[in-house]
Amino acid sequence: MHKAILEVQEISVRIGDRMVLYPISLELRPGQKLAVAGETGSGKSTLLKAIAGLQNLKSGAVYLQGERVEEAWEKLIPGHRKIAYLSQHFELRNNYRVQEILNYAEKVTEQEAAEIYRLCQIDHLLNRKTDQLSGGERQRIAMARLLVGAPILFLLDEPFSNLDALHKQTMKQVMLDLGKAMQINWVLVSHDPGDWLSWADELLILREGRQLQKGNPASLFYAPEDEYTAGLLGTYSVLNASEWEQLSGERLEFPKIIRPAQLQLSTVNTAPLKGYVKETEFVGYGYLLTVELESGNRIKLFHQDACQPDSPVGVQLR
Ligand SMILES: Nc1ncnc2c1ncn2[C@@H]1O[C@H](COP(=O)(O)OP(=O)(O)OP(=O)(O)O)[C@@H](O)[C@H]1O
Protein backbone atom coordinates (compact mmCIF):
# COMPACT_ATOMS: atom_id res chain seq x y z
CA MET A 1 0.00 0.00 0.00
CA HIS A 2 1.47 3.37 -1.03
CA LYS A 3 1.02 6.24 1.37
CA ALA A 4 1.21 8.94 -1.27
CA ILE A 5 -1.58 9.27 -3.83
CA LEU A 6 0.70 11.17 -6.16
CA GLU A 7 4.47 11.13 -6.44
CA VAL A 8 6.20 13.44 -8.87
CA GLN A 9 9.86 12.51 -9.18
CA GLU A 10 12.25 14.99 -10.71
CA ILE A 11 10.14 15.67 -13.79
CA SER A 12 11.34 18.16 -16.36
CA VAL A 13 9.82 19.26 -19.65
CA ARG A 14 11.43 20.63 -22.78
CA ILE A 15 9.30 22.07 -25.57
CA GLY A 16 11.23 22.54 -28.78
CA ASP A 17 14.63 23.78 -27.70
CA ARG A 18 13.34 25.48 -24.53
CA MET A 19 13.33 24.10 -21.01
CA VAL A 20 9.83 24.87 -19.72
CA LEU A 21 10.06 22.92 -16.48
CA TYR A 22 13.25 22.14 -14.56
CA PRO A 23 13.30 19.04 -12.33
CA ILE A 24 10.42 19.21 -9.86
CA SER A 25 9.46 16.70 -7.19
CA LEU A 26 6.40 16.63 -4.98
CA GLU A 27 4.12 14.29 -3.12
CA LEU A 28 0.43 14.39 -2.32
CA ARG A 29 -0.93 12.39 0.59
CA PRO A 30 -4.59 11.32 0.69
CA GLY A 31 -6.86 14.27 1.25
CA GLN A 32 -4.13 16.85 0.69
CA LYS A 33 -4.89 19.92 -1.41
CA LEU A 34 -2.06 21.48 -3.38
CA ALA A 35 -2.09 24.87 -5.07
CA VAL A 36 0.50 25.93 -7.64
CA ALA A 37 1.22 29.63 -8.06
CA GLY A 38 3.51 31.56 -10.33
CA GLU A 39 3.53 34.43 -12.77
CA THR A 40 2.18 33.92 -16.26
CA GLY A 41 4.42 31.61 -18.29
CA SER A 42 6.12 30.14 -15.20
CA GLY A 43 5.12 26.58 -16.16
CA LYS A 44 2.01 25.97 -14.03
CA SER A 45 -0.14 24.49 -16.82
CA THR A 46 2.80 22.47 -18.10
CA LEU A 47 3.28 20.95 -14.64
CA LEU A 48 -0.42 20.01 -14.45
CA LYS A 49 -0.34 18.49 -17.94
CA ALA A 50 2.80 16.56 -17.07
CA ILE A 51 1.09 15.14 -13.96
CA ALA A 52 -1.98 14.25 -16.03
CA GLY A 53 0.07 12.32 -18.61
CA LEU A 54 -0.76 14.87 -21.29
CA GLN A 55 2.82 15.95 -21.80
CA ASN A 56 6.09 14.34 -22.82
CA LEU A 57 8.77 14.50 -20.15
CA LYS A 58 12.44 15.19 -20.65
CA SER A 59 13.26 13.37 -17.44
CA GLY A 60 11.64 11.95 -14.33
CA ALA A 61 8.35 10.17 -13.76
CA VAL A 62 4.89 10.61 -12.23
CA TYR A 63 3.33 7.89 -10.07
CA LEU A 64 -0.33 7.61 -9.14
CA GLN A 65 -0.86 5.24 -6.23
CA GLY A 66 2.54 3.75 -6.96
CA GLU A 67 1.94 3.15 -10.67
CA ARG A 68 3.73 5.15 -13.30
CA VAL A 69 1.55 7.53 -15.31
CA GLU A 70 2.37 7.06 -18.98
CA GLU A 71 3.57 10.10 -20.89
CA ALA A 72 1.71 11.52 -23.88
CA TRP A 73 3.92 9.79 -26.49
CA GLU A 74 3.26 6.39 -24.95
CA LYS A 75 -0.48 6.45 -25.61
CA LEU A 76 -2.77 6.79 -28.58
CA ILE A 77 -5.10 8.98 -26.52
CA PRO A 78 -2.98 10.71 -23.88
CA GLY A 79 -4.26 10.96 -20.32
CA HIS A 80 -4.97 8.70 -17.37
CA ARG A 81 -8.45 7.42 -16.57
CA LYS A 82 -8.05 8.14 -12.85
CA ILE A 83 -6.76 11.68 -13.34
CA ALA A 84 -9.18 14.44 -14.28
CA TYR A 85 -7.73 17.57 -15.82
CA LEU A 86 -9.93 20.64 -16.19
CA SER A 87 -8.18 23.07 -18.46
CA GLN A 88 -8.86 26.80 -18.39
CA HIS A 89 -9.89 26.35 -22.04
CA PHE A 90 -12.35 23.50 -21.47
CA GLU A 91 -15.10 22.99 -24.01
CA LEU A 92 -18.62 21.67 -23.67
CA ARG A 93 -20.04 20.35 -26.92
CA ASN A 94 -22.73 22.72 -28.13
CA ASN A 95 -26.33 21.83 -28.79
CA TYR A 96 -26.49 18.86 -26.45
CA ARG A 97 -28.53 18.54 -23.31
CA VAL A 98 -26.41 18.66 -20.18
CA GLN A 99 -27.69 15.22 -19.19
CA GLU A 100 -26.48 13.71 -22.49
CA ILE A 101 -23.00 15.11 -22.04
CA LEU A 102 -22.84 13.72 -18.54
CA ASN A 103 -24.25 10.28 -19.41
CA TYR A 104 -21.57 9.87 -22.02
CA ALA A 105 -18.79 10.14 -19.42
CA GLU A 106 -20.48 8.26 -16.58
CA LYS A 107 -18.45 5.54 -14.87
CA VAL A 108 -20.17 5.69 -11.49
CA THR A 109 -23.51 4.33 -10.29
CA GLU A 110 -26.69 6.30 -10.90
CA GLN A 111 -26.86 7.11 -7.21
CA GLU A 112 -23.26 8.39 -7.13
CA ALA A 113 -23.89 10.47 -10.25
CA ALA A 114 -26.96 12.05 -8.62
CA GLU A 115 -24.81 12.91 -5.59
CA ILE A 116 -22.16 14.50 -7.83
CA TYR A 117 -24.81 16.62 -9.58
CA ARG A 118 -26.15 17.69 -6.22
CA LEU A 119 -22.71 18.61 -4.88
CA CYS A 120 -21.83 20.46 -8.08
CA GLN A 121 -25.15 22.26 -7.77
CA ILE A 122 -26.25 21.41 -11.31
CA ASP A 123 -29.33 19.20 -10.70
CA HIS A 124 -31.58 21.96 -12.01
CA LEU A 125 -29.58 22.28 -15.25
CA LEU A 126 -29.71 18.70 -16.52
CA ASN A 127 -32.37 19.39 -19.15
CA ARG A 128 -30.82 22.61 -20.42
CA LYS A 129 -28.96 22.86 -23.70
CA THR A 130 -25.22 23.48 -23.31
CA ASP A 131 -25.46 26.85 -25.04
CA GLN A 132 -28.00 28.09 -22.48
CA LEU A 133 -25.62 28.27 -19.52
CA SER A 134 -23.64 30.92 -17.68
CA GLY A 135 -19.85 30.68 -17.40
CA GLY A 136 -20.06 29.47 -13.79
CA GLU A 137 -22.67 26.84 -14.67
CA ARG A 138 -20.58 25.61 -17.60
CA GLN A 139 -17.59 25.28 -15.29
CA ARG A 140 -19.52 23.22 -12.72
CA ILE A 141 -20.90 20.99 -15.51
CA ALA A 142 -17.43 20.47 -16.97
CA MET A 143 -16.31 19.52 -13.49
CA ALA A 144 -19.23 17.13 -12.95
CA ARG A 145 -18.50 15.54 -16.31
CA LEU A 146 -14.97 14.73 -15.17
CA LEU A 147 -16.15 13.63 -11.74
CA VAL A 148 -18.57 11.01 -13.08
CA GLY A 149 -15.48 9.46 -14.68
CA ALA A 150 -14.53 8.55 -11.06
CA PRO A 151 -11.08 10.19 -10.82
CA ILE A 152 -8.93 9.97 -7.70
CA LEU A 153 -6.87 12.99 -8.63
CA PHE A 154 -8.41 16.20 -9.95
CA LEU A 155 -6.23 18.85 -11.58
CA LEU A 156 -7.73 22.30 -12.07
CA ASP A 157 -6.14 24.97 -14.20
CA GLU A 158 -7.37 28.43 -13.19
CA PRO A 159 -10.82 27.17 -12.17
CA PHE A 160 -11.90 30.55 -10.86
CA SER A 161 -10.62 32.83 -13.56
CA ASN A 162 -13.98 33.61 -15.14
CA LEU A 163 -16.07 33.60 -11.99
CA ASP A 164 -17.39 36.44 -9.86
CA ALA A 165 -16.84 36.40 -6.10
CA LEU A 166 -20.15 34.66 -5.40
CA HIS A 167 -19.55 31.86 -7.90
CA LYS A 168 -15.99 31.46 -6.66
CA GLN A 169 -17.38 30.84 -3.20
CA THR A 170 -19.80 28.24 -4.60
CA MET A 171 -17.01 26.48 -6.49
CA LYS A 172 -14.77 26.35 -3.43
CA GLN A 173 -17.59 24.89 -1.37
CA VAL A 174 -18.32 22.33 -4.10
CA MET A 175 -14.65 21.31 -4.10
CA LEU A 176 -14.52 20.99 -0.32
CA ASP A 177 -17.72 18.90 -0.27
CA LEU A 178 -16.52 16.68 -3.12
CA GLY A 179 -13.11 16.20 -1.57
CA LYS A 180 -14.73 14.91 1.60
CA ALA A 181 -17.54 12.89 0.02
CA MET A 182 -15.53 11.23 -2.76
CA GLN A 183 -11.98 11.27 -1.36
CA ILE A 184 -10.67 13.21 -4.29
CA ASN A 185 -7.26 14.85 -4.19
CA TRP A 186 -6.91 18.28 -5.71
CA VAL A 187 -4.17 20.19 -7.42
CA LEU A 188 -5.09 23.70 -8.41
CA VAL A 189 -3.33 26.35 -10.43
CA SER A 190 -4.29 29.97 -9.95
CA HIS A 191 -3.12 33.53 -10.30
CA ASP A 192 -5.18 34.97 -7.52
CA PRO A 193 -3.93 34.39 -3.96
CA GLY A 194 -7.43 34.95 -2.58
CA ASP A 195 -8.51 31.81 -4.42
CA TRP A 196 -6.38 29.34 -2.59
CA LEU A 197 -4.71 30.80 0.47
CA SER A 198 -7.57 29.56 2.62
CA TRP A 199 -8.17 26.45 0.54
CA ALA A 200 -4.80 24.77 0.01
CA ASP A 201 -2.81 22.77 2.55
CA GLU A 202 0.34 23.11 0.50
CA LEU A 203 1.51 25.77 -1.87
CA LEU A 204 4.15 25.44 -4.58
CA ILE A 205 5.67 28.56 -6.09
CA LEU A 206 7.02 28.39 -9.64
CA ARG A 207 9.20 30.88 -11.45
CA GLU A 208 10.55 30.43 -14.97
CA GLY A 209 9.94 26.69 -14.76
CA ARG A 210 11.72 26.27 -11.43
CA GLN A 211 10.33 25.41 -8.02
CA LEU A 212 11.07 28.40 -5.82
CA GLN A 213 9.37 27.59 -2.54
CA LYS A 214 6.98 25.01 -1.14
CA GLY A 215 5.16 24.97 2.17
CA ASN A 216 1.92 25.70 3.91
CA PRO A 217 0.21 28.86 2.63
CA ALA A 218 0.36 30.77 5.92
CA SER A 219 4.10 30.24 6.36
CA LEU A 220 4.81 31.27 2.75
CA PHE A 221 2.54 34.27 3.20
CA TYR A 222 4.34 35.52 6.32
CA ALA A 223 7.83 34.24 5.50
CA PRO A 224 8.27 34.50 1.74
CA GLU A 225 11.86 33.97 0.64
CA ASP A 226 11.80 36.87 -1.77
CA GLU A 227 9.66 39.64 -3.22
CA TYR A 228 8.48 37.41 -6.08
CA THR A 229 6.75 35.00 -3.68
CA ALA A 230 5.62 37.88 -1.46
CA GLY A 231 4.05 39.69 -4.40
CA LEU A 232 2.24 36.61 -5.70
CA LEU A 233 0.53 36.14 -2.36
CA GLY A 234 -0.63 39.69 -1.74
CA THR A 235 0.28 43.20 -0.66
CA TYR A 236 3.62 43.57 1.13
CA SER A 237 6.17 46.16 2.16
CA VAL A 238 9.92 45.97 2.49
CA LEU A 239 11.63 47.49 5.53
CA ASN A 240 15.37 48.08 5.43
CA ALA A 241 17.43 46.36 8.12
CA SER A 242 17.66 49.45 10.33
CA GLU A 243 13.90 50.17 10.12
CA TRP A 244 13.20 46.56 11.03
CA GLU A 245 15.60 46.77 13.99
CA GLN A 246 13.90 49.93 15.27
CA LEU A 247 10.56 48.18 14.97
CA SER A 248 11.38 44.76 16.35
CA GLY A 249 14.78 44.95 18.07
CA GLU A 250 15.95 42.17 15.76
CA ARG A 251 19.12 42.74 13.75
CA LEU A 252 19.07 41.33 10.23
CA GLU A 253 21.62 41.40 7.41
CA PHE A 254 18.90 41.85 4.80
CA PRO A 255 15.65 43.78 4.27
CA LYS A 256 12.50 42.44 5.90
CA ILE A 257 9.32 41.64 3.96
CA ILE A 258 6.22 42.43 5.98
CA ARG A 259 2.42 42.25 5.46
CA PRO A 260 0.01 45.14 6.13
CA ALA A 261 -1.74 43.19 8.91
CA GLN A 262 1.55 42.86 10.85
CA LEU A 263 1.78 46.63 11.37
CA GLN A 264 -0.39 49.18 13.11
CA LEU A 265 -0.52 52.89 13.82
CA SER A 266 0.62 54.16 17.19
CA THR A 267 1.16 57.44 19.05
CA VAL A 268 3.63 59.51 17.06
CA ASN A 269 5.87 60.52 20.00
CA THR A 270 6.59 57.05 21.28
CA ALA A 271 6.47 55.14 17.97
CA PRO A 272 9.57 53.26 16.77
CA LEU A 273 8.95 54.50 13.21
CA LYS A 274 7.41 57.77 12.11
CA GLY A 275 5.99 58.96 8.83
CA TYR A 276 3.13 60.58 6.96
CA VAL A 277 -0.01 59.06 5.46
CA LYS A 278 0.19 59.26 1.69
CA GLU A 279 -2.78 57.19 0.53
CA THR A 280 -5.91 55.73 2.06
CA GLU A 281 -7.68 52.93 0.21
CA PHE A 282 -10.97 51.39 1.32
CA VAL A 283 -10.62 47.57 1.24
CA GLY A 284 -13.93 46.46 2.72
CA TYR A 285 -12.90 45.43 6.21
CA GLY A 286 -10.92 48.60 6.84
CA TYR A 287 -8.44 50.88 5.11
CA LEU A 288 -5.11 50.10 3.53
CA LEU A 289 -2.85 53.03 4.33
CA THR A 290 0.32 53.93 2.50
CA VAL A 291 2.71 55.58 4.93
CA GLU A 292 5.90 57.31 3.85
CA LEU A 293 8.57 56.79 6.51
CA GLU A 294 11.27 59.33 7.34
CA SER A 295 13.66 57.39 5.08
CA GLY A 296 11.31 57.96 2.13
CA ASN A 297 10.41 54.27 2.13
CA ARG A 298 6.68 53.68 1.59
CA ILE A 299 4.96 50.92 3.53
CA LYS A 300 1.40 49.64 3.73
CA LEU A 301 -0.67 48.80 6.78
CA PHE A 302 -4.28 48.19 7.74
CA HIS A 303 -6.23 50.63 9.86
CA GLN A 304 -9.86 50.60 10.91
CA ASP A 305 -10.52 54.20 9.93
CA ALA A 306 -9.59 56.44 7.04
CA CYS A 307 -6.76 58.94 7.64
CA GLN A 308 -6.26 62.42 6.26
CA PRO A 309 -3.51 62.65 3.65
CA ASP A 310 -0.21 63.98 5.08
CA SER A 311 -1.23 63.41 8.69
CA PRO A 312 1.78 62.46 10.83
CA VAL A 313 1.60 58.92 12.21
CA GLY A 314 3.64 56.46 14.22
CA VAL A 315 4.04 52.84 13.15
CA GLN A 316 4.63 49.79 15.33
CA LEU A 317 4.35 46.03 15.10
CA ARG A 318 0.89 44.66 15.74
N1 LIG B 1 3.06 24.11 -26.94
C1 LIG B 1 4.00 24.97 -26.59
N2 LIG B 1 4.95 25.36 -27.47
C2 LIG B 1 5.92 26.23 -27.14
N3 LIG B 1 6.03 26.79 -25.93
C3 LIG B 1 5.13 26.46 -25.01
C4 LIG B 1 4.05 25.55 -25.29
N4 LIG B 1 3.30 25.42 -24.16
C5 LIG B 1 3.88 26.21 -23.25
N5 LIG B 1 4.96 26.84 -23.75
C6 LIG B 1 5.83 27.78 -23.03
O1 LIG B 1 6.14 27.22 -21.79
C7 LIG B 1 6.16 28.19 -20.76
C8 LIG B 1 5.24 27.76 -19.65
O2 LIG B 1 3.90 27.77 -20.11
P1 LIG B 1 2.68 27.40 -19.16
O3 LIG B 1 1.45 27.46 -19.99
O4 LIG B 1 2.99 26.12 -18.48
O5 LIG B 1 2.74 28.60 -18.12
P2 LIG B 1 1.65 29.05 -17.05
O6 LIG B 1 2.42 29.33 -15.82
O7 LIG B 1 0.55 28.05 -16.96
O8 LIG B 1 1.13 30.38 -17.69
P3 LIG B 1 -0.33 31.08 -17.60
O9 LIG B 1 -0.52 31.49 -16.18
O10 LIG B 1 -0.18 32.23 -18.51
O11 LIG B 1 -1.34 30.06 -18.06
C9 LIG B 1 5.77 29.50 -21.42
O12 LIG B 1 6.93 30.23 -21.65
C10 LIG B 1 5.11 29.08 -22.71
O13 LIG B 1 5.32 30.06 -23.69
TrEMBL record:
SMART domains: AAA (SM00382). It holds the Pfam family ABC_tran. It comes from the Bacteria. InterPro entries: AAA+_ATPase, ABC_SmlMolc_Importer, ABC_transporter-like_ATP-bd, ABC_transporter-like_CS, P-loop_NTPase, Transp-assoc_OB_typ2. GO terms for molecular function: ATP binding. PROSITE patterns: ABC_TRANSPORTER_1, ABC_TRANSPORTER_2. Keywords: ATP-binding, Nucleotide-binding, Transport. Residues 6-233 form the ABC transporter domain. This is ABC transporter ATP-binding protein. The lineage of its organism: Bacteria, Pseudomonadati, Bacteroidota, Chitinophagia, Chitinophagales.
